[in-house]
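Private note to self, pasted from the team thread so I don't lose it. Backbone tokens:
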């Protein structure tokens, strides 16, 4: 949709918006449980809307959105670091566990709310997937076909952000899942084919596989976010090198 492989919620500030709110609730307001999740979801949505509004200007630009998102992410990460430095050690331990991204503590009690959110917003995304291929060709081409680009883009972004914010509020930020799942899912179905379902399945398998590695492969148990971060960081460097080479050629 943004025509840029770097357009991942890990990179453009969406997960950071949820994270800073959750850390503030844990460290400053001493909140826990569902209340932290609710605030994290709201914060993720607010930050996403802010990024979109700042990037819109006279016309929408995916590159501008990514750059603004990276800037806001850096600012939010700085706020998170400040909160962690000022808090007492006991509270910091709880916040760091949340920030590492983990499936520990997840029970069937979390299933109904997750199912409802995925069913509603996942259905919206699947319904609008047919427009994604057109949007990838550019705004001018989409306009000639009579597609209301801004409306479709806003609905897709808000639906995606709500799913991301809700997932982040439940497990904490699990790094690079969306960043890895999208390209892999696209490769599996082939270029030009809708890849929403394949990307979702790859993301789910990636999280489950990483969790199993973190729990059973090493003598020390690692949160799933640590494993996905180890997998995702080299891919990000590889992608940046490829983009740089394309720019030089």
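Design output:
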């Amino acid at each position: 949709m943004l025509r840029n492989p770097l357009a991942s919620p890990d990179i453009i500030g969406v997960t950071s918006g949820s994270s800073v709110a959750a850390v503030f609730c844990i460290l400053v307001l001493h909140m826990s449980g569902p209340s932290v999740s609710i605030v994290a979801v709201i914060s993720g949505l607010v930050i996403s809307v802010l990024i979109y509004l700042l990037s819109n200007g006279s016309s929408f630009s995916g590159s501008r959105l990514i750059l603004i998102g990276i800037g806001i992410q850096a600012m939010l990460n700085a706020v998170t670091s400040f909160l962690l430095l000022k808090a007492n050690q006991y509270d910091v331990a709880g916040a760091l566990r949340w920030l590492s991204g983990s499936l520990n503590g997840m029970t069937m009690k979390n299933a109904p709310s997750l199912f409802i959110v995925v069913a509603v917003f996942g259905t919206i995304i699947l319904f609008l997937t047919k427009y994604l291929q057109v949007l990838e060709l550019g705004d001018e081409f989409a306009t000639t076909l009579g597609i209301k680009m801004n409306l479709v883009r806003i609905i897709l972004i808000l639906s995606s952000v709500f799913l991301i914010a809700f997932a982040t509020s439940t497990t904490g930020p699990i790094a690079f899942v969306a960043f890895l799942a999208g390209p892999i899912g696209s490769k599996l179905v082939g270029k030009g084919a809708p890849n929403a379902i394949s990307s979702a399945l790859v993301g789910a398998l990636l999280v489950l596989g990483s969790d199993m590695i973190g729990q059973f492969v090493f003598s020390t148990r690692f949160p799933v976010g640590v494993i996905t971060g180890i997998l995702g960081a080299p891919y990000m460097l590889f992608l940046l090198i490829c983009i740089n080479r394309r720019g030089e050629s």
